[in-house]
C-alpha cells in the first residue's frame, strides 16, 4: 500500500499550545522557521512565560525535539518545565542568527538530540 502523507499548514500551528509529556503547558507556537534550500522546518519558535503576551521569552526548538499532535492541536516537547525555564531564549525584538551553525549546534546539544543535518 503506498504511503499517504498527512499534511498540515504552518499557519494552522501558529498559536497552538506546546505541552510536555506531563501535560504541563509550556507556551505556544509563535513562528516556524523554514530552510528554503532544503524545504524543511528548522525550528519551531516557542513563546513561554510572561502574562497576557507581555514579557514572553522566545525559544528556538528543533523539530526533532517535538511531537505533533494534530488531533489535540498541540506540540509535545519532551522537557520538564524547569529545563525550558533555564534554556537560552531571546526577546521578541532581538532574534539570534538562527542560520549560524554554532547556534544550531548549541541548541541541539542543550536538548540532547542528534542533528540530522550535521551528517
Quaternary organisation of the protein chains: single chain
Give the name of the CATH architecture.
Roll
Please tell me what the overall shape is.
Answer: globular
Query: Structural class of the secondary structure composition?
Result: alpha+beta
Total domains, how many? 1
Q: Radius of gyration, Cα only, in angstroms?
A: 14 Å
Order of helices and strands: HEEEEEEHH
Main sheet characteristics: 6 strands, mixed
Q: Compute the separation of the termini in Å.
A: 31 Å
Number of strands: 6
Strand order of the largest sheet: 4-3-2-1-6-5
Q: Low-confidence parts, pLDDT < 50 over ≥5 residues?
A: none
Please tell me about this protein's structure.
The chain has 119 residues and is α+β, with helices and mostly antiparallel strands. It has a single domain, classed as PRC-barrel domain (SH3 type barrels, Roll), CATH 2.30.30. The chain is built from 3 helices and 6 strands. Strands 4-3-2-1-6-5 form a 6-stranded mixed β-sheet. It is globular. The N and C termini lie far apart (31 Å). The mean pLDDT is 85.
Amino acid at each position: 500500500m503506498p504511503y499517504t502523507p498527512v499534511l498540515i499548514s504552518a499557519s494552522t500551528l501558529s498559536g497552538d499550545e506546546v505541552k510536555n509529556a506531563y501535560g504541563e503547558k509550556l507556551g505556544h507556537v509563535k513562528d516556524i522557521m523554514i530552510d528554503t534550500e532544503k524545504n524543511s522546518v528548522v525550528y519551531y519558535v516557542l513563546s513561554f512565560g510572561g502574562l497576557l503576551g507581555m514579557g514572553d521569552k522566545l525559544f528556538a526548538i528543533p523539530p526533532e525535539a517535538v511531537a505533533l499532535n494534530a488531533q489535540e492541536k498541540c506540540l509535545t516537547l519532551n522537557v520538564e518545565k524547569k529545563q525550558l525555564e533555564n534554556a537560552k531564549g531571546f526577546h521578541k525584538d532581538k532574534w539570534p542568527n538562527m542560520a549560524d551553525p554554532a547556534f544550531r549546534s548549541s541548541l541541539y546539544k542543550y536538548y540532547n538530540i542528534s542533528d540530522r543535518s550535521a551528517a
